[in-house]
Amino acid sequence: MFRQSFRAITKVNRLAGVRTYAEAANSLKLSLAMPHDTIFNKKEVTQVNVPAVSGDMGILANHVPIVEQLNPGVVEILEGTNSSKFFISGGFVSVLPDSSIAITTVEAFPLDAFEASTVKTLLTEAKKNAASSDEKVAAEASIEVEVLEALTTALH
Amino acid sequence: MYRLGAQQIARASCAQARNYATLREIETRLKSIKNIEKITKTMKIVASTRLGKAEKAMTSSRVYHESDIDFFKTAETAAPEGSEKTLIIAITSDKGLCGSIHSQMGKKVKAAVSEYPTADIVSIGDKTKNQVLRSNSDKLVLSFSGVGKETPSFNEASLIVDEITKLGDYDKIIVLYNKFVSSVSFEPSAASIFSKESIDASSKLSVFDIEDDDTTGVLAKVALTNAVFAGMAEGYASEISARRNAMDNASKNAGDMINKYSILYNRTRQAVITNELVDIITGASSLD
């Protein structure tokens, strides 16, 4: 019995060793953070797709270090074959030389938390306000339109 | 020796005389200490309940702020040599009764001022404002109050930074805040934020592939907001835990005093009764 458990331990150890080695080479360490909450903290993932200002991009491990501003849009996170999608309000992505990626955004929600019909009504209202003569209201509404339009395309 | 003894007797009788006279006084004092204990206990409970939320806010703000710190570290950003324009942002709050948290921040500000004699100061929270006004009133350019009542929000930090950016450009901005170390300790710390020019001049910026030239400018602004927000969240958590500890100590001290005064009160009461009995018995026996 002792020998058996001993063998089990060595097996586990070997497996653990192999896994860390493989992950260090092939995976990203993702932090997806909001000021008031953290969605992921240094979680190991395969690929992250982000809506950068210069165009949507997919980031894999060993990506060249970047700092990019993000548009409102969908962040897609691939862990192996699993994919999870979050809609973010814009922010920053930074990839460091050690394959760690940090996405900072003020707000983020899972994509399935949004309801298409509510988005539609809000969008019509925002479009109406965007034509307002009040400069402040118009500016706020145009941001709203930008976010909501991104959200509409993300939901379809 | 006799004289000494006489002195002692005199002192004892004097103390006794005072005790008799102050039975009521002891009673009122005991009552007020009991009230104080109630208040400090309640404040401790309030702080304890807030602490969980404050710690959560602090942890998430740390993760949020970390990416900026990592970026500056990797790019090896530094303020240009001999830069004149430095801004010190000191973050505390309006409320006291939380130990030495505000005065330590005051010391930190003084140390920072002696390091950067030409720096301007922005204070967040009335407590630092008062200390800065006392020592370096000419350097204070802007102050905010009314923060730190609730868990700090990013919106609050953004509004504050909006006002700060109206002051003009600074080569280097130093954010001073109380860093939360553990529930019993905090540490006045500094975070440095740099301008677009400083970031662009970073020695290792070429490590990063930056496509858009505007990115660093936006990053500089966002990094400042993040630093202020993280500082506020850390400061709030430290303050709440410091207040909890201060109130815990105050309640304990009040408890000790209540014990002491209860014993004193009872002894005095007994002494008064004994004395009255002695008077009555002496009076009665003299009639016999």
Major sheet attributes of chain A: 5 strands, mixed
Basic shape of chain B: elongated
CATH architecture of the domain at 64-201 and 213-243 in chain B: 3-Layer(aba) Sandwich
Structural class of chain B: alpha/beta
Helix share of residues of chain A?
Answer: 25-40%
Largest sheet of chain B: 5 strands, mixed
Overall pLDDT level of chain A: 83
* Cα gyration radius of chain A (Å): 21 Å
How many distinct helices of chain B? 7
Could you give the order of strands across the largest sheet of chain A? Answer: 2-1-9-8-5
For this structure, the CATH topology of the domain at 64-201 and 213-243 in chain B is: Pyruvate Kinase, Chain: A, domain 1
Shape designation of chain A = elongated
| Beta-strand percent range of chain A | 35-45%
Relative strand content of chain B = 5-15%
Under the CATH scheme, the architecture of the largest domain in chain A is Sandwich
The strand order across the widest sheet of chain B is: 3-2-1-4-5
Termini separation of chain B comes to 41 Å
Number of domains of chain A: 2
Low-confidence stretches of chain B: 12-19
Subcellular location (chain A): Mitochondrion inner membrane
GO molecular function (chain A): proton-transporting ATP synthase activity, rotational mechanism
Keywords (chain A): ATP synthesis, CF(1), Hydrogen ion transport, Ion transport, Membrane, Mitochondrion, Mitochondrion inner membrane, Transit peptide, Transport
Family (chain A): Belongs to the ATPase epsilon chain family.
